[in-house]
Each structure stands twice: as structure tokens, then as C-alpha cells.
Design brief:
Blueprint (H helix, E strand, L loop, with lengths): L5 E7 L5 E9 L2 E11 L15 E4 L6 H4 L7 E3 L9 H13 L14 H4 L5
Parallel strand pairs: 1-4, 4-5
Antiparallel strand pairs: 1-2, 2-3
Length: 123
Amino acid sequence: RTGRSKVLVCLGAREEEVYSGAYLIEGDDAILVGSEQVGKPDISSFASIDVGEGWSGVGDGWKYSEQFGVGDKLKLTLCDFQDSDSDAQTLSIIAQSRFDKGLTKEPHMALPVYLKEQMGYKE
């Protein structure tokens, strides 16, 4: 819907940390590449993928662009955070796309992802 095909999402978390993830946009779906992360804003947030050229940065966490090495280690087309607000309509389009592909789960399997717990994170 945005005309972008490769998106690095970076959202601010507490204590100057960020939630980050890389997604390939395929039609009306966003496919996670690698794994979601939480931690200090630096290039290692995207260590699980090849962050060559052609990626767009989306989210308020890109306020730490210098710490990520944007323009040096990381070549991005940065986007305005207002351009990336999630909303029910967009989430519904993604959900419908996945439903149409048969990518469904039983309701009791639809659980939130707690990154800090999965990563053994200690505050």
C-alpha cells in the first residue's frame, strides 16, 4: 500500500531501547524476515538479515538514526513516522490476505509476542 517492498520497522521502547523487525511487503501482506528484536538502537538490531540497499526505515525509533549508522553502515530511505501509523483498516487487510492464503490459527493460539521474555532479557 505504500509502494515499498522492504521495510525496517523500528519503534521506541522504554529506556532508550527499540523494538525492531524487517518485513518484505508482498501484495497485501507483510512477511517477517529474520526475527523481531528489542535492545539498544544499533546495527545489530538487524543482524539476522541482509540490510543492503532498498530498505525503507519506518517508525519513531529511527530518531536514533546516528546510533544505527544510517548513511554509513546502513543505507536506508527513511520515512516519516506519521506515514507508518498502524490502524485497524491496515491490520484488517493483512489479516484478510493471510486468511485467504489459509494462514490461520485457532483462536487460543493467537497470543501476543513478548520479545523481552523470549530473549531472556534482564532489566
